[in-house]
UniProtKB/TrEMBL annotation:
Predominant location: cytoplasm
Organism: Aegilops tauschii subsp. strangulata
Signal sequence coordinates: none
Pfam families, per the entry: F_actin_cap_B
Biological process, per Gene Ontology: barbed-end actin filament capping; cell morphogenesis
Location in or out of the cell: Cytoplasm, Cytoskeleton
Name of the protein this chain belongs to: F-actin-capping protein subunit beta
Amino acid sequence: YEGGISSVYIWEDEDESFIACFLIKKDGQGKRGYMQIGSWDAIHVIQVGPEEEGAAHYCLNSTVMLSLTTDNKQSGTFNLSGSIRRQVTHSSLFISAEGAM
């Protein structure tokens, strides 16, 4: 992980559910290959609420953002940035691994 920062926030919603937010940030300068400067940010939010007959509803939203800048004779000069967002919902009697994300 080499010096990134992270935070976790958890709170209750008014409809008897709870929400957890996991934030991760990592910045780097000249540590990998030709990279001059770069950053990586991830935001994961999960909401868990009750359903009928003791089951629970899970909703997971994940966003990952990347940014990379390089200025090198061999690789040239470029800026590359992007993000991806995924959402998955699931209802069950127990929590299961959300490996499909």
